[in-house]
Amino acid sequence: MPTIAAITGHAFAGGAILACAFDFRFMRTDRGFFCFPEVDLNVPFLPGMLAVIKKAVPMYKFEEMQYTGKRLTAQECEAHHIVMKAGHINDLMNEVLAFAKTLDKQRMIIREMKKRLYKDIIRTIDEEDPFYISTGKLQ
Question: What CATH number does residue 77 fall under?
Fold first, then answer.
């Protein structure tokens, strides 16, 4: 089934990657930033993490975020199509629920679409990540 993230605060590092794994993202405007601070933490992304991020963040924006650790506001995320909609917390959940109601589709077709769309991400996680994890070559 389609998944929706309602980002109601900061989405940093692993939280931002997790948000990227969702099919659709909404973010509150009055609190929180979206950020990949790994450059400041001296931690590179695993190949699978990169694959998940690339599905949600346009490359030109991801390069900037990855190399600078820049924090994006909800409005910036919306402008760069990282989130579908940015809104005040009082309206955000209503927007998310209204959007979710439009996704009443047949689960089997959604399953097959996602399987085909994300097969390269799954392959990357299954085939490339284990080397970095098992050898400890995370940096």
Answer: 3.90.226.10
